[in-house]
Amino acid sequence: MIDLSQIEKGIPTALLIRHSEREHLPEKVHDITEPLNNSGEKKAMELGEMLHDYAKKIQIISSPVGRCIQTGKAILRGFGTIGDIIESSYLGEPGPFVLDRDKGLFTFTQLYSCFEVVELQCKNSYLDGFRTQKDGTEYLISYVCSMLQETPPDTLMIFISHDACLAPILGYYTGEIFRKGYWLDFLDGSVIQQYNDKFLFKRNGKSYEIQKRIC
Predict the structure, then answer these.
(1) How many angstroms separate the CA atoms of 82 and 87, rounded?
(2) How far is CA 164 from the centre of its chain?
(3) Mean pLDDT, the chain, as a whole number?
């Protein structure tokens, strides 16, 4: 789960997280219908409860995939509020990296596992139908920053996406090498905060400045 202690209170804040727990999927299986399991529902609600210490209101922006929307609804329940969830293709289906859905699906189901795709992206290897790690990262982070700028400072924004979307982005900023055996956990991700005209990407106790041209 994401480390909320990275949040500095009282300034505009966004969480960029993976959806909550689902059952294990075999490698090279792309199943957007697999829902959260009971543990996933429970952990997402627990995250919502913890957010009371950091915000008066929350706003959920989610990948259109069902388990991401489920995660958002469970967070809202845990927070004790009812709200609309904004669905965004920036976060999934197709997400920030896939330019061509058919080529992307072929890559994930016929050529490589999710682990291998992310490793190749982080090595700047060419993948047909995909944005580069740099371009995909800037594509999503610019969206997050623009939404954050338009949101009241008392509202914490939560962007819910997928491991294959987030791992290359986290690796771009932090240098982490995600691979089989070292992977992004459910509900983990990064904190993004706005300090006047500066944005910081926070993870694992460290801060990385987001370039102004992105925001």
Answers:
(1) 16
(2) 9
(3) 91
